[in-house]
Specification:
mainly alpha, 70% helix, two-stranded antiparallel ribbon
């Protein structure tokens, strides 16, 4: 039993790490979609944030080593850049009432190309950034009494292996879920946010700015996608590589839809995708009974196959905010 429990803890630990950017992106999408903005641009915002975070952290950590907290400077830069992209998205589809899906796809395409072009121009490494020094990335944190707790049966290894030992942004990701729930369901801002996504005319009649609320939602979205991007390049990895988001923004959006635009159920869907990502690493090269060695491309495709299956099976059943995707035109 001890061996199986160790494997279980190892898989759970890997699931939490792999799911962290999905959780952040899913919460980001929840803010924008609850306000009525379809946000397929989560992918581009996260990818742009990852590039800016790695670039800023590398520059500060390498050329200004006396400046402390290079990773936090990278994180701040990623958040600012992602907010800028979110406001660009809002300018297109809120102010100018453009198609929300097309403007989101445009941001994704822009970031997929721009990060490579700038990466080649700035670092001459084929679109990648140089490897970050340890002082310029988020390292794992050991929580108090983690080593001492290992001797406690069942609970001790769970605390030492799964709860302790993650980097700061993993904890931020999972704390963002109850924070999002509290903001959306327990604050005046959240009440107005949900009302804007359901009936913007009623909100406007009450004297609340629909445009202002939707822009505020986009700022929240940009903040969270910026943290997700910084996690990819300065915490989970030690550099930016081209297309490193690898469709995770789309998977996060699928998790949000599967979770019916609710924080905790969306997090559960993200953990399910994260489990597949953890299995991808575990199953490579493993011989399974009656099956043999599982092909690596099949393992890598599992999260995307699940995305298609869930969207095909649950999109019609999940009830989206009524005004989602509809530009608001103020009645005179």
């Amino acid at each position: 039993m001890g061996e199986y429990y160790t494997i279980f803890l190892s898989m759970l630990d890997a699931t939490l790490r792999v799911s962290a950017p999905l959780v952040l992106c899913s919460m980001a999408g929840l803010f924008s979609e609850r306000s009525g903005i379809v946000n397929i641009a989560l992918e581009g915002k996260m990818l742009g944030g990852a590039f800016v975070a790695a670039s800023a952290a590398y520059t500060v950590g390498t050329y200004y080593p006396s400046v402390p907290g290079a990773m936090f400077i990278g994180l701040a830069a990623a958040i600012c850049w992602s907010i800028f992209l979110a406001l660009m998205h809002g300018f297109a589809c809120i102010t100018h009432r453009g198609d929300q899906v097309i403007s989101g796809v445009a941001i994704n395409i822009l970031m997929a190309g721009l990060t490579i072009v700038l990466g080649i121009a700035w670092f001459s490494q084929g679109g990648k950034t140089p490897a970050l020094p340890d002082g310029a990335r988020f390292l794992d944190i050991e929580l108090p009494f983690a080593e001492a707790a290992r001797s406690i049966p069942v609970i001790g290894p769970l605390y030492a292996e799964v709860i302790s030992g993650h980097n700061l942004l993993v904890y931020v990701a999972y704390l963002a879920v109850p924070a999002t729930w509290w903001i959306v369901y327990r604050t005046r801002f959240g009440l107005r946010l949900r009302a804007v996504g359901e009936s913007p005319n009623a909100v406007d009649t009450a004297g609340i700015s629909v445009v202002g609320m939707r822009y505020a939602a986009m700022v929240c979205c940009g903040t969270l996608t910026g943290i997700a991007g910084a996690y990819l390049s300065t915490a989970q990895n030690a550099q930016f590589v081209r297309d490193m988001s690898a469709g995770q923004g789309y998977i996060a959006l699928a998790a949000l839809i599967f979770g019916k635009w609710r924080p905790f159920t969306a997090m559960g869907a993200c953990l399910m995708f994260g489990l597949l990502g953890a299995l991808e690493t575990r199953l490579q090269g493993v011989q399974l009974p009656y099956i043999g060695q599982v092909p690596v491309p099949l393992i890598q495709a599992l999260p995307y196959i699940l995305t298609v299956v869930l969207l095909a099976g649950f999109v019609g059943k999940a009830i989206a905010p009524k005004a989602i995707g509809q530009p608001y035109v103020k009645e005179r």
